[in-house]
Write a structure and sequence with these properties.
- Residues 44-228 form the Intradiol ring-cleavage dioxygenases domain.
- It comes from Lentibacter algarum.
- Belongs to the intradiol ring-cleavage dioxygenase family.
- The chain has one domain (46-226): Aromatic compound dioxygenase (Protocatechuate 3,4-Dioxygenase, subunit A, Sandwich), CATH 2.60.130.10.
- The chain is 6% helix and 24% strand.
- The chain is built from three helices and eleven strands, in the order H-H-E-E-E-E-E-E-E-E-H-E-E-E.
- The chain has helices at 24-28, 41-45, 197-201, and strands spanning 76-84, 95-100, 125-129, 135-141, 146-148, 154-156, 159-165, 172-179, 204-207, 218-221, 224-225.
- Strands 1, 2, 3, 4, 7, 8, 9, 10 and 11 form a nine-stranded mixed β-sheet that branches. A two-stranded antiparallel ribbon has the order 5-6.
- The longest helix has 5 residues, at 24-28.
- The protein starts with 23 loop residues before the first helix and ends in a 16-residue tail after the last strand.
């Protein structure tokens, strides 16, 4: 059976490539009509990821980089949800990866020069496979906001980068999740490139008191919908599922 072609970007839902208030989009956006390139069979069908590729601590950012007996600094949170298709059916055995700044708003990256300190017990990245019901789960710290050189006083809201792999290596979707109630969401030039408030809402993880662990960890729920009318907004939908 010939694999189906990937879904194309819904340009009424996604932001335009050129959005001058988000200054780096001016240099990065194309000036000519886009060309749709077909994927090869090897890109569509492989390689695959399996349970042998995942360490038991990969989804626990509170432990996977910390020294023995120590923990990262910051608000301890759980981020969990399901990976679903357009008909709300679970998507099992999907590799979900996350990366983020620490609680002070600084990434563990040599080019991050923000004055917030690096947390020696926080690596800032993790991965897991969705289970048979499409469920995934991470423990981490809530990332801090940080300034960026877009405007004189622009700040990124707290966010976690999320990557989802499909059945082949070319089937990768990338997005960012934000946190319910963050006032910086409405002020962020990147977020505000999204024309539909409903799309922004679908990028916002909701407080989940039912999954919160008393005296331990606050939980947020973030379901990832791959396509359809309720799909999560992805940064690279053109190349994804």
């Amino acid at each position: 059976m010939k694999p189906a072609e990937f879904y194309q970007r819904d340009r009424n839902w996604h932001p335009p490539a050129l959005t001058p208030p988000y200054k780096t989009s001016v240099a990065r956006s194309p000036r000519y009509s886009l060309i749709s390139l077909e994927n090869t069979p090897s890109e569509i069908t492989g390689p695959r990821f399996g349970h042998n590729d995942i360490d038991p601590l990969d989804n626990d950012l509170l432990s996977n980089y910390a020294k023995a007996g120590e923990s990262p600094i910051g608000e301890r949170i759980i981020v969990h949800g399901r990976v679903l298709d357009e008909n709300a059916r679970p998507v099992p055995n999907t590799l979900v990866e996350v990366w983020q700044a620490n609680a002070g708003g600084r990434y563990r990256h040599k080019k991050d020069t923000y004055l917030a300190p690096i947390d020696p017990n926080f690596g800032g990245c993790g991965r897991t496979l969705s289970d048979a019901d499409g469920y995934y789960y991470f423990r981490t710290v809530k990332p801090g906001a940080y300034p960026w050189r877009n405007g004189i006083n622009d700040w990124r809201p707290a966010h976690i980068h999320v990557s989802v792999f499909g059945s082949g290596f070319a089937q990768r979707l990338i997005t960012q999740l934000y946190f319910e109630g963050d006032p910086l969401i409405a002020r962020c030039p990147i977020v505000q490139t999204i024309p539909d408030p409903a799309a922004i809402d679908q990028l916002t993880a909701k407080l989940d008191m039912n999954a919160t662990i008393p005296l331990d960890t606050i939980a947020y729920r973030f379901d990832i919908v791959l396509r359809g009318r309720r799909s999560t907004l992805f940064e690279n939908k053109l190349e994804g599922n």
